[in-house]
Amino acid sequence: MSEIVNNFLLNNYQYLPFIVFFMLLLAAINIPFSEDLIIITCAIVAHEHKQSLIPLYVAIYTGVIIGDHIAYWIGFHLGHNIKKIKWFAKVLSDKKVSVIQKYLNKYGIFTFIVCRFIPFGVRNTLFMTSGFSKMNYKYFSIYDIIAATINTSTLYFLIYFIGISVEKPFKIIGIVLFFVLLAALLTLFLNFFVFKKEKAEDSNISMK
Description:
The protein is mainly α.
């Protein structure tokens, strides 16, 4: 599906801002569109068609933010029952939800920033979990705006300024893998501090 989506976007670049916006909204309800691939494709198109740089970025950014809020409100209104719906069950596994909630409680905005760089359903798990956990909407909005700005701007403008051509797919894959590796390192870094903090708390309890 990713290759089909990629070719479709590249061949219809004049309509791309509208297409991208709606694709990102659909991704919010677990339609399997890769947000990272969409951003990378838009950056490649913008490099070839300079006039598309700002319209595409605006479409990506607004689509990402609104999509995140859609996922939040789905979780908010459906509550924990959302995990029983087959369409969302795979993304909202008990293990994923438990880890996300743990990180949200301990690290707040840093959880948003790290999860923003992790694909494969982690983002929607974060947003929907924030919703059915009744996270304060004001904080959700602030955290999401900051994390989305960092993630989308970094990926979009990095690809744009590198100027990758469509004829070099392995470089595109390399960039994607770089961000996956970065996300993995951030996750390990976060895990280290969780472990360190829990160990310190256990030591304090033992001393008492």
